[in-house]
Amino acid sequence: MLITPGVAGDFMNYTSKTLMAQCALFTLWAFTLVAVFTACEDRRADKAYLRGDYAKTAKELEGLAKLGEPRAQYDLAVLYDKGLGVPQSDTEALRWYTRAAEQGDARAQYNLGLMYMNGQGVEPNLVLAYYWVSLSVAQGNANAPPAQDYLTEKMTHAQIEEANNLVNGRLAKGLRQEVPHH
């Protein structure tokens, strides 16, 4: 059987298109599986929390947090902050609040701002406190404006200007971009 050049090219085109379609379907299937798995873990963590099983909650959240899920990062930070189901650790709370805040979680931004304001697990830094609280304000967190006002009273004009420059730079890039650390 002879295959003419045109037919061979059509056959190869068909084969590569079929393989690409199969790869795309497999990729879609894999992402769907990850999403379902993540949702199941998230629900298990919620149920464990409601039962007061904070150790199980922390275990369920840790995997999701390591995968970069901001809600899980925030929730895990709260557990470390309060010492629920895990040993209380300002260092771990700061770590997980920071990861969630960098992804734009307004609650994490607010709590991270408070940690910088109070020197909880970190040296006090009013500029970074104002920065994080202001990002939370920008997203409509109703708890954040009083903290922003309090910080404004404690800061020098130079500190406020530095913090506003950081905030404006972040807002110009979007709330979900990673930020430099002082």
Structural features:
182 residues; mainly alpha; 8 helices; 76% helix; globular
If you had to describe this structure to a student in words, what would you say it looks like?
The chain is mostly helical. It folds into two domains: 26-103; 104-176, no CATH class. It contains eight helices and no strands. Mean pLDDT is 83; it is low at 26-39 and 178-182.
The major pleated sheet works out as:
none
Count of all domains: 2
Number of strands: 0
- Helical element count? 8
Which helices and strands appear, and what pairs or packs with what?
Elements: H1 5-50, H2 54-66, H3 70-82, H4 90-102, H5 106-118, H6 126-138, H7 144-154, H8 157-173
Question: Would you kindly provide a brief summary of this structure?
Answer:
By secondary structure, the chain is mainly α. 76% of the residues lie in helices and 0% in strands. The chain has eight helices and no strands.
